Amino acid sequence: MAWIGAYSRPVPLVHSCHMRTFPGFLIVALAAAGCQREERQLRLDPPVVAALEQIALMPNRISGTPPQIYFALDRPYEENAYNLSQGKRLYSWFGCKACHADGQGGAGPAFLDGWWYYGPEMVSIFASIRDGRPHGMPAFRDQMTTEQIWQLAGYVQTIGAYSAKTAAPSRNDEKQTRPAENRAPAAKLFDEGPTPVHTDQGPTP
Amino acid sequence: MKLRATARLRALIPALALAGCTGWQSAIDVHGASAISLKHLIVMIVATCSVVWALVIATLIVALWRRREARESAIALDPRRQRRMTLAVGGAVAATVIVISAFTVSSFFTTRQLTAAGADNLTIKVRGLQWWWGVEYFGSKPELRFETANEIHIPVGRNVRVQLEGLDVIHSFWVPSLAGKQDLIPGRPNEITIRAERAGVYRGQCAEFCGLQHAHMAFFVVAEEQRAFEAWTALQRDNAVASSDEEVIAGQRVFLSRPCAACHAIRGTAANGKIGPDLTHVGGRKYIAAGLLETTRGSLAAWIADPQTLKPGNNMPMVPLAAEELRSVSAYLASLK
To answer: Which residues pair with B147 in a beta bridge?
Structure first.
């Protein structure tokens, strides 16, 4: 290709087309690599489920660490579209809408404003659903399985996420009452207000 | 010897193919009013098309075999020959138009007849979900209403209006032996009329791909005489009977204290979940998990122990139960006749 530089005249169109073939190939190859299907974990072995339950919470029951298995499974409930979709189903099936509406809140706090009373971490949300919280949040320990609680926690985190996620749950067939779950992060949509009160709790509305 | 075996095998293939046309799920072996008229339409169209095909092939063979006439000049016009050609081509065009119009008209009248509902109506509601069917029966009073799942009972010789409602994705209600297909579309109420002319059990299934377990979304239509149908409805309306058996009572305790009751309802107990199938009389149904397994205490236990292995992706979670709990809860469910 050294001749292109040798002649100080525009490269004929035909030749430039040849030159574009290689990047074109590259684009197609990259796009084909994107066809890989997302892994769906439909069945968890009972010991895995038992391990997933072992979260370590701080003494004030806000924040903590998920069990080792959670990282071994590559954080399956935050960025996996299938688990998020299941979480979205559970959100309506288990009556979350009765208090939290579509994320706007009502009798219970809103998720959309990005202000988390008990912190935005998965473990805190998991603990809130499993064990309940004061002032009316019931415990779902006896109604849902551990896997379902993780799925629901992942979905709830998505509603008030600070950063946009690469995975999204399934589409809504009903009227849209709020921005989509994989929209721009809550921090950009809503006024953050003053600096956070507590490092775990996110910005105050 | 070997030749004869292959010949016998060849004879077996059409016999097997024909055998596939009969049974409890076949659009050819029909016992319902709509399915019968649809079958007439199919037979009429296939027969006519076969005759047309045979005529075309015969004409082609004649044209290939006939000796070409010796002519003085290829471009010379022969008025007699031209008239014959015009007649033949005109006749073929006219026949095509007649056949196609006859098909269109008869197909129009058959489909119109399918939607015409008779006066003697029984109305039920069928909901399609991933991947099972919810069935709701109404009565003259609200307390006569009841729900069941994956099994529809209908009286023989009566028109049954089936209101269809899709709740998650598009499904399609299809009982080939009784009627054609009708889609269940979320947000759009639909309906189909079925009528069984003969008592029997007819298998139906979802006819619109609806996800992972589309293939395991079957249901059964049990057509029975009016008296048997009334006895069945009376039984279904009743609450689940309390048993005095110790194991059954223990099973009920497990059912109510574990996540089971959050999704399933058993009338007469505190379990009133609306997410999964109503289990009030689950032991009396022929199949569980939308036609996946025959209802026995063993299959119930297998299903509860590991639903994701039996039907991967379905929405029933694996609830961790101790062996004793599993045994009693399956005894309890099997006892709910």
So the answer is: B136
The candidate with the shortest Cα–Cα distance to B259, out of B241, B275, B282, is: B275
Query: Does residue A13 lie in a domain region?
Result: no
Residue B167 touches chain A, beta carbons under 8 Å: no
Q: Is the peptide bond before B303 cis (omega within 30 degrees of 0)?
A: no
Question: B144 with B20, same domain?
Answer: yes
Asked whether residue B288 is domain-assigned, the answer is yes
In the 3-class helix/strand/coil scheme, how is A53-109 assigned residue by residue? CCCEECCCCCCEECCHHHHHCCCCCCCCHHHHHHHHHHHHHCCCHHHHCCCCCCCCC
- The answer to whether the beta carbons of residues B289 and B315 sit under 8 Å apart is no
Any idea what the Cα angle at residue B130 is, between residues B124 and B134, rounded to 5°?
Answer: 20
Total number of domains constituting chain B:
2
The rounded distance, in Å, linking the Cα atoms of B231 and B238 is 11
Specify the 3-state DSSP secondary structure of B68: coil
Domain with A145 in it = 46-189
Q: How would you classify the pairing of strands B151-155 and B218-224?
A: parallel
pLDDT tens digit sequence for B63-120: 899 877 666 666 667 788 889 889 989 999 999 999 999 999 999 999 888 876 666 6
CATH of the domain at B149: 2.60.40.420
Which chain B residues are closer than 8 Å to A145 by Cβ?
259, 317-320
Q: Assess contact for B159 and B179: CB atoms under 8 A.
A: no
Global pTM value: 0.81
Question: Does B313 contact A42 at a Cβ distance shorter than 8 Å?
Answer: yes
Interface confidence, given as ipTM, is 0.81
Its domain, for residue B107, covers 10-59+90-235
The verdict on residue A33 lying in a domain is no
C-alpha span between B218 and B175 (Å, rounded): 10
CATH of the domain at A102: 1.10.760.10
Domain endpoint, select from B179, B206, B235: B235
A145: nearest CA partner in chain B: B319
Residue of B nearest to A172 (CA): B168
- Residue A204 pLDDT: 44
Domain end position, chosen among B235, B266, B281: B235
A42 chain-B contacts, CB cut-off 8 A: 308, 312-313
Total domain count for chain A?
Answer: 1
Smallest Cα–Cα separation from A108: which of A159, A55, A57, A164? Answer: A159
